[in-house]
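Below is how a single chain appears once it has passed through the pipeline. First comes the sequence as given, then the structure the pipeline wrote out for it. We keep one example in the README because the format questions we get most often are answered faster by looking than by reading.
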Amino acid sequence: MEFEHKTVLVAETISNLNINPDGIYVDCTAGGGGLSFEIASRLSRRGKLICIDQDPDAINVCRRRLAQFENVSIVHGNFSEISRIVHSFGIDYVDGIVLDIGVSSYQLDSADRGFSYKNDAILDMRMSKTGKSARDVVNSLNYLELKKIIKNYGEEEFASRIADLIVKKRITKSINTTCELADIVSQAIPCYAKRCGGHPARKTFQAIRIYVNNELANLEKCLDQSVELLKSFGRLLIITFHSLEDRIVKQKMSFWAKPCICPPDFPVCVCGAKPKIELIIKKPIVASACEVAENFRSRSAKLRVCVKI
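Resulting structure:
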C-alpha cells in the first residue's frame, strides 16, 4: 500500500505560515510530503526546506514526491531531535516550523502496521518500526502500568477493568493481534457504555500507541526546541488531533506568551520574565464543514499559530 496521508487544514496552514520565498522552514512531520510540497513550491532557490519524519515508509515516498526540489532536505528522524537536525545543516535559526501531530491515514489503514482495531494484524503501532511494539507492551507490563497508560493516554473511564482483563487473558495465551486486543477491551467495557462513543477499543488503542511512540514527551521536547530555533517574527504552527496533544500545545504557547513565574498573590510581576511569542490567533482554527465532508478525520483537527517576538 502506497503511503498516503491526506493533510488537513492545508490552505489555513500555508496562509498562516506567511512564507518568505527566501526563508528557511522545517516540516517536522513530513509524512508523504503533501504539506512539504506546498511549502517547497513557494520557495525560491535561495529558500530551504527541511523535512523530518520517523516513519521509513513516509521518508521513501517523500523523497520521490519532492525529488524536483533541489533546496529540500529529507531526514529520517524524530522531531524531538529538531535542534540537532537543523544545526547539522549549519543553520542556527529558521523562519517557520510546522507540526502535524498524530498517526497518518496510511498507518491506520495499512493492516500490517498494526495500528487499527479495524484490521486484524500483529499488534505493532511503531511509527519508526523500531523499539518495543504494542504486542510487547500488552504482554509485559503489569496491571498498574497498563491501567495508568490506558487511563492517562486514552482518558478511558474503564481503564482498570481493561487492564485487569488483559492481564488475566494473557496468562493462558499471549495477546498478539489487533483483533484479539480489541475483543478483550470490548469484553471489559459494560454493555451500556458501548451503545455510544464509537468503537469501544478506540481509546485503549490510542493510549497504547501514544505510549509505544512516546508521543507526548517527544512533542514537549520538540516544542521547547522549536521556539528557540525560530528567528524573530518566525512562526510555529501545530496541528493536533486529540485533547492531550492540544492541551500541551495550548499550555506551552500560553506560558511563552506570559512567562511570569511570580506567585499569583503578587500584585505586580517582579520576576522580569519576557514573552517569547505572540499568539496569532486566540482560538484554534478548525476544519470547515466542506473539508470534514471530504475527509472525516479532519473533524478533530486544531491548528494553533504563534510568532516569535
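The mean pLDDT is 93.

See the next section for the split statistics.
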